[in-house]
Design brief:
- By secondary structure, the protein is an alpha/beta fold.
- It has 4 domains: 153 residues, Rossmann fold (3-Layer(aba) Sandwich), CATH 3.40.50; 142 residues, Rossmann fold (3-Layer(aba) Sandwich); 113 residues, Tetratricopeptide repeat domain (Serine Threonine Protein Phosphatase 5, Tetratricopeptide repeat); 191 residues, Tetratricopeptide repeat domain (Serine Threonine Protein Phosphatase 5, Tetratricopeptide repeat), CATH 1.25.40.10.
- The protein has 28 helices and 12 strands.
- It has a 6-stranded parallel sheet with strand order 2-1-3-4-5-6, sandwiched between helices. Strands 7, 8, 9, 10, 11 and 12 form a 6-stranded mixed sheet that branches.
- It is globular.
């Protein structure tokens, strides 16, 4: 086929058996005027075909369709197309958007038969080729000529796998990566050994010298399956350096955005807001591990320190300690002495590398945010606790994995068993290591999500933050819990502090937007949500948030437009039901509510209460709130900062509901006060 404007075209590469799914993607893109290189009749060989596809690939956005079929087929024209696309990557500016892989089934993102370059960038899951408006919008954005966000550049990392999220069991946004960003993989890197110091007075406008990002160490083992091992070492270094008060250490999610990035150190430093980068590589061959690392000054790209270490695998913990000591020594000259928080002991007490390795694999699966992967995380974390029953970090990870599985994927009957296991694991972790911040975060999460014990959760998150003052997850969790109490100003401040530590967290920006629009800071809220969309264009619930902002502005067309762009599933059903209530079409408003009830009454009754509140129907609102409490719908945590439910804050039934679920009653002397 001939593409009229190849500078705005998409090249859709697929195996012939996947033509129906590819056709759906093609039709969705063409429906908004995007030119697509797609025609079954042209799937042929020969010189003319070869020259044609080379020309089109050179001037298009490349969408490889990944599936079980592409895994099974060792040969095919699509593999030639993939090779040509990879060759083009080597000639491109890293800031140009080019690769945008899509997956149409449950093919794993570590499929060894998918080119490594494809595995380095963000994948989008479009089951059966069903293409939501959010993905189409994302493609339009990439074709607009604007610089690509980090997750979509030609050679940058995939921080998450985008997908159309399933309906949650309870109205709560999955805090993608939040739970496990706090779980460093099991090293005791003794911060008290080093006298880190802060600069007397950094020059105005300059990035503070007391700041560092640990970029993911390159896996040079020759096996894609060893990526978790090199990532684990990188994350352990982040954990160790985070123990130093006064040292700003960028969190994993943001730092790992720059895996294999072609950007220079100055550019990365500016985007992350740090003065130093730690980068290097890991090679494991048999029982030998080689780690190369260097400390880079982002101001001029100079190497301040470098080292190479060859050790046997059994000496891995000592090797990591040695690298951390060397980095700390280089920073010491620039920083003033400061008191240390409690050193976080994360090494397996037995020194078992097998337990450490099992935890690394568990965390690898936990980051991927699917039911199957949560179950894999549970399996590996359980194995870690079997290998070392005193491994508190593994028990903490196990508790959070069970809580996540319960909150997002199980029915009410199965939830009880999962929550019971989560509680047992969290309690065991704390019994083993009372000073481990991650254990307190795990227990706090169980108390908040499974037990609705708000005060208990607050105490745990505060304790975690006291033990690890530079931990972004501890700041975020405490802020989120304070919002549950209706204390939005401190929630905003703590979330901003968390984002200063981990500035590329899309989900945190979305939560920040939640807090801001309830404070009627609508423009700030919109900026936060759009930042989340820039970082994760297919993120579930983000357009739901924009729908709420437009409702608060009284903009019915804008609310409906935002709702239509939400990813299909519960969040779009809810957004449409809310948006329709302020429109002039009452039949459409009633129909949208009926659809929501038919599809989600048993899983998210809180969301239905929101719509009735928007309809000014207090009787139905409180009936559905009571049903939400009976179902233990996690959406209840929004009550004190829900712009729809709060319209009834002066209704006696509102105070009665707050007392029933254990939340403070606004205006009462006993109401919660943050400190």
């Amino acid at each position: 086929m001939s593409v009229a404007d190849t500078s705005r075209a998409v090249f859709l590469s697929y195996a012939s058996q996947d033509s129906e799914a590819a056709q759906r993607i093609c039709e969705a893109l063409r429906a908004v005027g995007i030119e697509v290189w797609f025609d079954q009749s042209e799937l042929r060989g020969g010189d003319a075909w070869d020259q044609s596809i080379r020309k089109q690939i050179k001037s298009s956005l490349f969408l490889p369709v990944i599936s079980h079929t592409t895994h099974d087929r060792r040969e095919g024209y699509f593999r030639l197309e993939w090779k040509l696309a990879i060759d083009r990557c080597h000639l491109m500016d890293a800031n140009l958007a080019f690769l945008l892989p899509v997956v149409i089934d449950d093919t794993r993102d570590d499929d060894e038969r998918v080119p490594e370059r494809f595995r380095e960038v963000q994948w989008t899951r479009l089951p059966g080729g069903e293409t939501p408006p959010a993905f189409v919008d994302r493609v339009q954005h990439l074709l607009s000529g604007e610089a690509a966000p980090p997750s979509e550049r030609a050679a940058t990392p995939r921080s998450a796998i985008a997908s159309a999220a399933p309906a949650p069991r309870g109205l709560i946004r999955r805090r993608t990566g939040v739970l496990y960003g706090a779980l460093a993989a099991g090293l005791l890197l003794i911060a008290g050994y080093f006298g880190l110091q802060r600069l007397n007075q950094p020059k105005p406008g300059n990035t503070g010298a007391a700041s560092i990002a640990v970029l993911p160490l390159a896996n040079e083992s020759g096996e894609a399956g060893r990526q978790y091992f090199s990532d684990g070492i990188s994350e352990d270094l982040i954990t160790a350096l985070s123990q130093f008060p006064g040292l700003k250490v960028i969190g994993r999610t943001s730092a790992f955005q720059f895996r294999d990035s072609k950007e220079d150190s100055r550019s990365i430093g500016a985007k992350l807001g740090v003065a130093h980068l730690l980068e290097g590589s890991v090679r494991r061959s048999g029982e030998t591990v080689r780690v190369s690392a260097e400390l880079i000054d982002t101001a001029d790209g100079s190497t301040q320190w470098s080292g190479r270490y060859d050790r046997t695998y059994k000496d891995l913990f000592a090797l990591q300690d040695e690298i951390t000591r060397a980095v700390a020594g280089e920073l010491r000259a620039k920083l003033l002495p400061g008191d240390h928080a409690e050193a976080q002991s994360e090494r397996p007490p037995s020194g078992s590398l097998e337990a450490y390795n099992a935890l690394l694999q568990g965390r690898f699966y936990a980051h991927r945010d699917t039911e199957a992967d949560d179950r894999q995380a549970i399996e590996h974390c359980t194995e870690a606790t079997r290998l070392d029953p005193r491994y508190a970090l593994a028990w903490s990870a196990l508790a959070q994995a069970w809580t996540s599985l319960s909150a997002y994927y199980l029915d009410l009957a199965a939830t009880k068993e999962a929550n019971s296991r989560a509680r047992e694991a969290a309690e065991h972790a704390l019994a083993l290591a009372p000073e481990l911040a991650t254990a307190h975060i795990a227990r706090g999460y169980v108390l908040q999500i499974a037990d609705f014990d708000w005060r208990g959760a607050e105490a745990e998150f505060r304790r975690a933050l006291a033990l690890a003052p530079n931990d972004g997850d501890a700041k975020f969790y405490l802020g989120n819990l304070l919002a549950t109490f209706g204390d939005l100003e401190p929630a905003v401040e703590l979330t901003r502090q968390a984002l200063a530590i981990d500035p590329l967290r899309a989900d945190w920006y979305a939560w920040l937007g939640d807090y801001l629009y309830v404070l009627n800071r609508l423009d700030e809220a919109e900026r936060a949500i759009r930042k989340a969309l820039d970082l994760q264009p297919a993120g579930a619930s983000y357009y739901w948030n924009l729908t709420v902002i437009e409702i608060k502005r009284g903009n019915a067309p804008g609310a409906l437009a935002a709702a239509l762009r939400e990813v299909p599933g519960f969040w779009q059903d809810s957004a449409l039901a809310l948006a329709r209530q302020i429109g002039s079409d009452r039949k459409a408003a009633d129909a949208a509510l009926r659809t929501l009830i038919e599809k989600d009454a048993n899983t998210t009754p809180y969301g239905i209460a929101q719509v009735y509140a928007q309809r000014n129907d207090p009787q139905q609102t409180f009936e559905w709130l009571d049903r939400a409490w009976s179902n233990r719908d996690t959406g209840i945590q929004y009550v004190l900062y829900d712009p729809f439910i709060l319209r009834y804050k002066d209704d006696p039934r509102f105070a009665a509901f707050c007392r029933k679920v254990g939340l403070p009653v606004p205006g009462e002397a006993s109401a919660h006060k943050s400190v």
